[in-house]
Amino acid sequence: MNELLNDPFVQSSALPLALGFALVGVLRVAGGAAVGRRIAVAGIAAAFLAVFALVIGVPALPPPSSMGKLFWSAAVGLALGLATDTVGLRGRAASALVAVWLSGSLAWIAAPAIASAADVATALILLAVGAWVAFGRLPSRAEGPAAPAAVLLALALAVGGTALIGSSASIAQAALALAAATGGFLLWNWPVERHAWGVSGQAALGIVVLLAAVLAFFTQAQAALLLIALPAVLADHLRRRLPLPETGFGRAAGTAAMTVIAILPALAAIGAAYLLTGGEASPY
Amino acid sequence: MKKLFAAALLASATIVAIGAPAFAAPVSYKIDPAHTAVVFIVNHLGFANAVGRFNTVSGDVTFDKDAVQNNAVNVVIETASVDTNHAKRDEHLRSPDFFNAKEFPQLTFKSTKVERTGETSGKLHGDLTLLGVTKPVVLDVTFNKEGVSPASKKETAGFSARGTIKRSDFGMKYGVPNIGDEITLLIEAEAVKS
């Protein structure tokens, strides 16, 4: 069993998928009919933190490194999401909380590394994506969770693949674990969308931004290529243009199609990273 | 009476002069990077041990072979200089998975105590700071030789040190246990009088 848990492939895929699926279910049941529907999505961030602790270890507090700061920032995001979703906070107030948490976390992680104009530009791009996470996907929208979950899956895949090619296996495993945990959530919400997205979902999206920040500032990976993956955020806009009926089948097909559409730019980013290394990816 | 007093004074002075210990002054040396090797050995998946070194090492040694308590060592190693003879692996070692060279460009060792265990051997106690974490470590040290080097014509002292650390103690947990937690250190150093 120990050997299985220590297998990097299991740590990055099957384990977080199973944990994500299980934790979403547990939160749904524990929260009851009304609250459970809102907090279930926190299972994504919770599964991410559990796998991070297993693979990389629980960082010290205060954390000496950016990966440690990422862990504790994610933990704060999870706590924030659970608290606000439990009371049912929505709208601009919820978005503002996400914005404060995400911008504060980005500053905590990235500030020590900013030393050039390129670093400032990178920070601004990350802040812009963070602003989209906070305000572009308002939790008050009536839409189901599948669309933002598909975007999260795609972005996490992009970060994980780019990190793996760029010789940063721990960031790769963390990002791929986030993608797999999101898959666990999507298993509950396809073909029928059962849960809400909420602040906990926004927090999960924020975690992928923080992962991208660590990748960009503290590794040799070609993090700029992640920009190629950004069109994934438009996937649900494209979904509305698909000629699908407004039936259960139509909605399920639309979600599946949207997930594929979201993943395409992520694969393009990974492919570009692979080509830039001359076709030589880690591990050695 | 005066003669007796003078004789007693002379005798006392002689006894004091003979009995007093010879206090050698500690001498400062600078580590010679060209003749210093800091090597580490770590188990790789149980198949074999991987061997690596750091190519950029600097520091100073305060050496007093007659009074070991006066000895001190300060070493600074550039983590980005890690070298395992494989470019991709070295890039991985510099990443946040291991040495996190961008955030922690140096690892340092500062001695706190030296204890003699034999004629030319001792235990070097010190604080190792790696990834921002400081832990005490103990190295087995052998004093090899001191004198004027026929090559450089400079006063040189040479040492060997051995020790083991657990990288997880310093927060470097990635890959454990597939990539060994216990790291064996082999240090061969020459230091030139400042």
What is the CATH topology descriptor of chain B? Lipocalin
Name the helix and strand elements of chain A from N-terminus to C-terminus, one letter apiece. Answer: HHHHHHHHHHHH
The separation of the N and C termini of chain A measures 26 Å
- Give the strand order, joined by hyphens, for the main sheet of chain B: 1-4-5-7-8-9-10-11
Number of DSSP helical runs of chain A = 12
List how many beta strands of chain A DSSP finds: 0
- Overall mean confidence score, pLDDT of chain B: 89
The arrangement of helices and strands of chain B along the chain is HEEEEEEHEEEEE
Rg of chain B, Å, rounded: 22 Å
Largest interchain contact? A-B, 27 and 23 residues
State mean pLDDT of chain A (0 to 100 scale). Answer: 90
Morphology of chain A = globular
Helix content of chain A: over 70%
Shape of chain B: elongated
Q: Main sheet of chain B?
A: 8 strands, antiparallel, barrel
Tally of DSSP helical segments of chain B: 2
How much beta of chain A, percentage-wise?
Answer: under 5%
Relative helix content of chain B: 10-25%
Distance between the termini of chain B: 54 Å
Q: Which regions of chain B contain 5 or more consecutive residues with pLDDT less than 50? A: 11-22
Give structural notes.
The complex is a heterodimer of chains A (284) and B (194). Chain A has twelve helices and no strands. In chain A, helix 4 packs antiparallel against helix 5 (66-87) and helix 5 (66-87) runs antiparallel to helix 10 (198-218). Chain A starts with a helix and ends in an 8-residue tail after the last helix. With 284 residues, chain A is mainly alpha-helical. Chain A has helices at 2-5, 8-12, 14-39, 42-55, 66-87, 91-110, 117-136, 146-165, 169-188, 198-218, 235-241, 248-276. The longest helix of chain A is centred in the last third of the chain and has 29 residues, at 248-276. Chain A has one domain (2-276). Helix content of chain A is 73%, strand content 0%. Chain A is globular, with a radius of gyration of 18 Å. Chain B has 194 residues and is mainly β. Chain B has one domain: Lipid/polyisoprenoid-binding, YceI-like (Lipocalin). Chain B has helices at residues 2-19, 87-94; strands at 27-31, 37-44, 48-54, 57-63, 72-78, 82-83, 106-116, 121-130, 133-148, 155-166, 179-193. In chain B, strands 1-4-5-7-8-9-10-11 form an eight-stranded antiparallel barrel. In chain B, a hairpin with an 8-residue loop joins strand 4 (57-63) and strand 5. Chain B is elongated, with a radius of gyration of 22 Å. Residues 11-22 of chain B have low confidence and may be disordered. The interface between A and B is medium-sized, with 27 and 23 residues.
